[in-house]
Amino acid sequence: MTLWAKLRPYGMVAPAILVFSLFFIYPIFYMIYLSMFDWNFVSPTKAFVGLQNFQDLLSEEDFRKVLTNTSIYTILTVTLTTGLALLLALWLNKRNIFHGFVQGAIFSPHIISLVSISLLWSWLMDPEYGLLNWVIGLVGFGKLQWLSHPSTALVSLVMVAVWKGVGYNALVFIAGLQSIPADIYEAASLDRSKPWTTFTKLILPMLSPTIFFLVIINMIGSFQVFETIAIMTQGGPINSTNTLVYYIYENGFRFFKIGYASAAGVILLIIVGILTIVYFKLLSNRVHYR
């Protein structure tokens, strides 16, 4: 084999590796570099502070509140989105006009920008003129302060995330269900297997790769939430909806504490990386590939 033949595969993937390194690998290392400096984004000089930014972050009560908000938001969003999508997929796994229309309807929020969705839901959740309060008022409930009270603001953002994401997840589940061979259902029917037994012993194991994929992308997406918070709550009220990415944005581009924001970004990277590794280690052996 000639030298050109050996180098040819590397040459073909070199442009993709170059772009990936330029826009993904380099920013990560530069963020780690900036996290060790005190810099206001304007001054040409950077003061080296070592790990002081990390120490200040971990000792700050607001940052611990941000971590708690992010964890609650992620757990609720991933659990509700995945669970509701699976239920919808089981119902919509039929080939007819009605179910096809419903599939298209629930998928449509996925292709709408988060900015438009955030503006729409801000109006729906308006405490005085919003549609949601008008609806619950018809059944005798009082008006809720959806986005302006600490006890309901974060849950309201979770509702928006679930509404946007459940359609995409449901369609992925439907694709997984339709890939299950028909003879498996026939064998279960011949064995007179109960629906619950068929679901838990046959369908769920066959869907495990789909569940594995959706949980991991939903988890990473939930940690990166920004648009809905920036438009609907700006982290309030009383810091009750502030999450890691919005906290990074505030410190970096409102308060110009670039080193501090970079340190928070490094912590976000570490958290997502650890959770992803743990998730793969714990559950990868339980995924059944055909």
Automatic annotation (TrEMBL):
It is a multi-pass membrane protein. It comes from Paenibacillus catalpae. It is found in: Cell membrane. Residues 67-279 form the ABC transmembrane type-1 domain. It holds the Pfam family BPD_transp_1. Keywords: Cell membrane, Membrane, Transmembrane, Transmembrane helix, Transport. The chain crosses the membrane at residues 12-33, 72-92, 104-124, 202-226, 258-280. InterPro entries: ABC_transporter_permease, MetI-like, MetI-like_sf. This is sn-glycerol 3-phosphate transport system permease protein. The keyword Transport applies. Belongs to the binding-protein-dependent transport system permease family. GO terms for cellular component: plasma membrane. GO terms for biological process: transmembrane transport. It comes from the Bacteria.
